[in-house]
Amino acid sequence: MLVVGSVAFDSVKTPFGEADEVLGGSATYFSTAASYFTDVNLVAVVGEDFPEKHINFLKSRRIDTTGLQREAGRTFRWKGEYGYDLNSARTLDTQLNVFESFKPEIPEKYKTSDVVFLANIDPVLQRDVLHQIDKPKLVACDTMNFWIEGKKDELVKTLAEVDVLLINEGEVRELAGEPNLVKAAKTVMAMGPSTLVVKRGEYGALMFSGDEVFSAPAYPLESVFDPTGAGDSFAGGFVGYLDNVRNFDGKYLRQAIIFGSVMASFNVEDFSLNRMRSLDYKEIESRYREFMRLTSFEDIAR
Ligand code: AMP
């Protein structure tokens, strides 16, 4: 599968500590999480200041970095903080840097990708990438308030070409201009996506697909250190699993929601990508089964 998104230096402050200029970015979290399920081809841009050790980390996860362009200038930087309510980040600074003049060039061998994930970047770039791919079978996409507020018209054009949109609860309401979540979901699905995954932080995720609704809780963790990248690692588990099974029917979409929830739950246990660096696939399977126990209950006795 192919992913395009940001590769970044993040500076993050949470009530439990802070991290300065650490590895981050939507495509970084996504591809690392997805790499537990499938082969990932990465398209992104970094500046001259991006160290080789980070690229080596991506390669160690068998992520193909042929499409990771290095351009003159500084790497994208994002600075954010979280209060005790870890559900929403407050952006303190966004420096697009090399993203400002980024012209994504899709390597020839990526052009036949069946599954494409447009991680959170400028919706114009998301479309630019999509148009270089021959007939993908599944296009999934993420975005954020930065683009909903800054480039809504472009985002709406991109959504017309997307099958699955993964988005935060507050952002669905903002994009639809509608406070009721179910109505907002319908409004956003009318823009293009046949499946909408609403990420609700510590309250889990809701999936709207056709006329079906599916709800998954978040894993009840005792230690949450840094929610940065939760959404992208969720998307990595979700789309990575779908690429692995090559079947986008309801049953697989529901399993994918649980794999997404599992990957997000691991990611928030430490800063940057630190938890995923030491993660083993067996731990993913065992947490998937804990999710099954967490949500299963008996029918009413007669
Ligand atoms: P999330 O999964 O929603 O927590 O995404 C966090 C990641 O998004 C961080 O690692 C940031 O580097 C990245 N990010 C933040 N703002 C932007 C933006 N405007 N464009 C692209 N990536 C961003």
Tell me the layout of helices and strands.
Layout: E1 2-4, E2 8-14, E3 17-24, H1 26-34, E4 41-46, H2 52-60, E5 64-70, E6 76-81, E7 90-95, E8 115-118, H3 123-130, E9 138-142, H4 145-150, H5 152-159, E10 164-168, H6 169-176, H7 181-189, E11 195-199, E12 205-209, E13 212-216, H8 230-245, H9 250-267, H10 274-277, H11 281-295
Helix pairs in contact: 1-8, 3-5, 6-7, 8-9, 9-11
The structure holds adenosine monophosphate.
Strand residue content: 15-25%
Q: Could you say which overall geometry the principal axes of the C-alpha atoms support?
A: globular
Distance between the termini: 48 Å
CATH architecture: 3-Layer(aba) Sandwich
What Rg, in angstroms, do the CA atoms define? 18 Å
Kindly give the count of domains: 1
Number of helices: 11
Strand order of the largest sheet: 5-4-1-8-9-10-11-12-13
Overall pLDDT metric: 96
Quick recap:
36% of the residues lie in helices and 24% in strands.
Description:
The protein has one domain: UDP-N-acetylmuramoyl-L-alanine:D-glutamate ligase (3-Layer(aba) Sandwich). It has 302 residues and is an alpha/beta fold. Helices cover 36% and strands 24% of the residues. α8 packs antiparallel against α9. The strands form two sheets. A nine-stranded mixed sheet has the order 5-4-1-8-9-10-11-12-13, sandwiched between helices. Strands 3-2-6-7 form a four-stranded mixed sheet. Bound molecules: adenosine monophosphate (AMP).
